[in-house]
């Protein structure tokens, strides 16, 4: 789900309410000129200058601060630059300084990063973009800049004249910008030529040769939404790439799911890059409609997309810096030699199947949700659904609509949020109203990305305090039906569960009313002891009769897919994907500050992971593609905070 502008506002409001103490001063330019005055004199000067800055209009404050940062960075003075930040500060960088996706937390971390990167990055030409805004003392401004090899943009938030959060993101590689807008290709040579090659002939040649006469520079394993969006980004950057998909058609990863599936997120949040959904597109997209859109997209974006193709094995030659990948395409074994491989097999990896004692004696059918497509064959039958998160709810509804007698087995509490509530308070910057205010999808993506993960819990806790009060009667009825509700270990709700474990939540689009009304049964707070020939025996001695069991128990980490295709050794070297090291169950520490292994260099050279929901795939596909393009063109990409290095 998305985080709204309201949640940002909630965070800063909570900061103000708590009257957090931060140095109300800012150093202008190089502070080394004041060293002789001692700490007391310097602090006095900073206090005066800070007060002068606070008296300025927001845009003037932002411009003054940015100018001070630019001078410090140009001089290579990491200490002076660091003094422009409050003590409790954050700098989130997407490639521009670190060639990584990394958040520096605190002044010391920022100083260490600048000491390591300034000499090669050479940032310059910092300029504000538009007018700054101010809300109760928090000044927010957008800006652009450039480095030795790239163009960038970012967002600053100033508190008492100093920077609280800084966000920097790469937009283009110098000399390798996307050919779009005014730089779009002409598409034709206005000249008679007997040797002319038409567009269709050129596409046929490319399709024929790539993977045989010409090797792809990048192989994308997985042709669902993530692989398709990354393929489009790579295509626009001129990176020869092949996307392989096990299904028979693009979009089948959506079409093959249960018949009633509809996206829970709204259309404004789910656009694909380059081609947004048309204005008459429904707010919530049905699965088959999404499948058709993805199939259309692969054609229009001219992707080299191999269907009915399975990746058998992959190995990396450390000396030659090349992968050898065996794929099976429509029964034919083909060897590919890409420089990079990207696993885009979903947000997670293989299905997680739980051990059910007595499964060998159970007389009914046992399926994982990944195998479930329709409840039609379960009409009139008793079905137990193990799991009470999104898939568990959706499968239960589909079974109920098909005429099955459904009981949901809830093994742990679930965070439930009503869809209409979330639309009103959680998706404010992804909406028709936001567009009317000039907040495009691209701008909203940047706003979301600009808040460090460490600051999300406080803002989300405030948001869910509002949601819990607003829908208190709904939650009382749900609890009254025997359904266990929580809002996470620290009351931070759905978004933090999504980032930490990717499980344990449901956006209510109808299942909760069926539970409240008793149409879908619930067994909660009691463990499964074993299966019997005719059902499930619980720890309390009770038994549930069942003709079939659907396990909606989630998926393993994507590195388990690597174990099956590359090796166990490489999978373990890379480590698990997803989670931020929060320390809650399923997301062990230490603190990462970013999602593990996602969209950035991993411990295995030339191996990448890409995935997430439609919004995350849309936004981060750009940064995966930029990293691969830079390596293809020989651009220096010194990674700060490389995997395995504690920084």
From TrEMBL:
The keyword Oxidoreductase applies. Residues 70-162 form the SnoaL-like domain. It holds the Pfam family SnoaL_2. Keywords: Oxidoreductase. InterPro entries: Auxin_biosynth/cation_transpt, FAD/NAD-bd_sf, NTF2-like_dom_sf, SnoaL-like. This is Flavoprotein involved in K+ transport.
